Amino acid sequence: MRSLILNCALIGAALNAQCVLAQDFLIRGATVHTASSQGTLKNTDVLVRGGTIAAIGPAAGTPPGATVIDAKGRDLTPGLFGGLTNIGLEEISLESDTVDSTLNLKAPAWEQQWHPELDMTPAYNPRSTLIPVARIAGITWTMLSPDSGDSMVGGQGAAVTLDGRYDAVLPGSRSLFVAMGSSGAKNAGGTRAAEYMLLEQAIREARTQGPVGEGALLHAAGRETVARYLAGGRVFFQVDRAADILGVMAFAKRNGMKPVISGGSEAWVVAKQLAQAGVPVILDPIKDLPSDFDHLAASLDNAARLQRAGVRIAFSSGDAHNARVIRQLAGNAVAHGLSWDAALAAITANPADILGLGATRGRIAVGQVADLVLWSGDPLEVTTLADQVWIAGQSIEMRSRQTELRDRYVDKLKAHTAL
Amino acid sequence: MTNLPSRVALLFATALAVSAGLAAEPFPSTYKVPVNPPVLVQGATVLTGTGERIEGADVLIANGRIEAVGRALKAPAGARVIDAQGRWVTPGFIDIHSHLGVYASPAVKGLDDGNEATSPVTANVWAEHSIWPQDPGLQTALEGGVTTLQILPGSANLIGGRSVVIKNVPAVTYQAMKFPAAAYGLKMACGENPKREYGEKNQTPATRMGNVAGYRQAFADAQDYQQQWDKYQRELTEYNKKKAEQGHAGTIATDKKAKGKDELTVPTPPKRDLKLETLAEVLRGNIRVHVHCYRSDEMATMLDIADEFGFKVAAFHHAVEAYKIADRLAQRGVCAAMWADWWGFKMEAFDGIQENLPMVDYPQSSCAVVHSDSEDGIQRLNQEAAKAMAHGARVGLIVPPERAIRWLTVNPAKSLGLDDRIGSLESGKAADLVIWNGNPFSVYALAEQVFIDGALIFDRANPPSRPRSDFLLGQPSEAAQL
């Protein structure tokens, strides 16, 4: 509660009215997709109090002072995950002055130093034009993911809420990002074998007390960071080839890391092993082409096969500007055999669980943060739009730079053509 | 032509071919419409591409063409009957912006053949010579209902070269895919790509004004080249005429004096310049101009350049800001090919909005086109249209399925100059059609069967029959398909 009031103050005068309004409200008569074991609840009310979900049920009753929103049977989902993106870290991808997602020290492979201590979150700009664009499409949070520049270790990212607050980082979500496979190999002297060699060196340095001497891969801060991840830290390994997936799983296990496979184009090939080890996969389910020799077994069945094998999956397009396509990814996964509930979970509850946030977000359940989206139809359907989005119980203004452009020109167009 | 055996006649034929894009073109299509028994598709919801939606309709295919569309059609003897109740039928999709084959999967250096980025004007290169027919992306596009593609060179250059229109049929050579008698396209590019590509090498163009100077000089050179060839043709015609007269006279009078006096010189043709030859064909209206152009102001500049040199722009591609000049594009009869929602990846894409397609579609005689420029997007052109429909509806631009389907079919056909042959389900047109398992403007819709010229090329229910790239044989991907 205290932090909510603080956030409202930080957001500024323009939105203050909403902060006041948004405290308590009841969404009446929605088709509630809980993304939990409760599944879908028809004609159900959701009560939001102080930014969290206070009650769910048929005719939850209207507490005094609460605003009532009549859902008229429309679909309500948890706020969507935006994927592993640079939302808030970049404005225009090809304008490097506007991009903060990559550390590029331009050192040759054998003189490079790794900077796992690099934390991307101070670069996050809550006023980015990308945020309202994503938000009015139902995306309420995302995972800031450093890109690998000229080092296979991109640094650390964390999940952020997209309500526009400055202190947007969601505690407990911090993770280390390591790009392996063929994309990592170019930063490891040309062979993926060297990726493991360098990783082993970094671990040895992290375990060394005192100075590590000349030619070290890590600074002191980097050693401390790696040491933390060796104690059960979450590490995203960007890999696609089945052999690489098994390779990083074994490596992570040996070194006490909690691995997440990102990419995972060929993950279905090793689905059984992933399920047994409880290793989750964040994938783009529409990647079906052998885009390189790490993706030869890419298939539209990937998501459905992983789910059937018991692997926890989440989706990501990796696209910051167009993060909103995540719903379309989920819908396509359904068209190719994934159950509808599993597809919704892959863009809500599962990423929250994978990032250690499942207790507070990703589901419509009592006690969860009130990140909610009311939809015009089936939430996974491409012809459906978000009618209203709430983040932490705040009603989001359904506008963006794009709707401003639209409104300026659509009126002109209609007026001119009518003449 | 074979009745005129003289050397001159042959030379004349070559000159004509060079100058007017007539017969004897190199790299001829070897595609043949396959012979198949008639097919009757029964009881579907048919989006004809002409703006009509017919419920419970039949489509009759014979000899590779649409024979009839309507209710209660009779199956001719030997016809294959397909029960399509609950199914939707659309014309085959046409993607006018694809780099399949030229930027193939896998994206390795050995297959990186889309941009001859060695000079800002490479009108002499032809995309077809870069096409790898084994690109697995062709099959995944087919599974998305794409039956015709325009394969373009990339956009590094002001003038990137010739495009080619292909049919999405499995083949070992591109000639066997090449759309017979389809006009070539010229790929041009506005804006950031050429100026970045060459500016970084400290060459021209480094600015947008450099871009415009580059297009204009290229077409000015082409005008000069065209005049040289026109002059040669006049001389050749004159020569042939005189030769014929003299030959005729010669049978009467054969004295040596007369011969010496009137001896005719065979005119010398100008040296062929493959770059200017292509541009001259544009000026003659035989090659269609497709311009990669994001910003509305640059589209307007390009239309002025087209007016200056007397050519027509067939379509602006990546027309992210087309909505700002929708009425003007419609008035000029220029198509705009668009994505549904791409934006912000570069400055000239910063003003992308999700209502672009329905806004461009709004004026009378507009030509809005969905294009992909992507091996992923091409698999779901219908979904791109569906997203745009939804956003249009929210601002009162209602586009029903029977109209939206035109963005994927007859409008792109129009931009290719092929709307008399493909793009709609009308009697006499090519039987390029897709049977969908439901409303194609749904994320859950899948193409069940895809026909090209009446031949069933893709059948979802029959995996072994599906086209499959040589590249995928014996790969781990094999298992994915079984």
Structure description:
The complex is a heterodimer of chains A (419) and B (482). Chain A has 419 residues and is α/β, with parallel strands linked by helices. Chain A has 2 domains: 1-79 and 362-419, Roll (Urease, subunit C, domain 1); 80-361, Alpha-Beta Barrel (TIM Barrel). Chain A contains 13 helices and 17 strands. In chain A, strands 1, 2, 3, 4, 5, 15, 16 and 17 form an 8-stranded mixed sheet that branches. In chain A, strands 8-10-11-12-13-14 form a 6-stranded mixed sheet. In chain A, helix 1 (2-11) runs antiparallel to helix 2 (13-21). The longest helix of chain A is centred in the C-terminal third of the chain and has 18 residues, at 401-418. The radius of gyration of chain A is 22 Å and the shape is globular. Chain A starts with a helix and ends with a helix. Mean pLDDT of chain A is 92; it is low at 1-21. Chain B is an alpha/beta fold and 482 residues long. Chain B folds into 2 domains: 31-92 and 423-482, Roll (Urease, subunit C, domain 1); 93-211 and 274-418, TIM Barrel, CATH 3.20.20. Helices cover 30% and strands 19% of the residues of chain B. Chain B has 13 helices and 16 strands. In chain B, helix 2 links the parallel strand 6 and strand 7 (146-151). Chain B is globular, with a radius of gyration of 25 Å. Chain B starts with 6 loop residues before the first helix and ends with a helix. Mean pLDDT of chain B is 93; it is low at 1-23. Chains A and B meet through helix 10 and helix 13 of A and helix 10 and helix 13 of B.
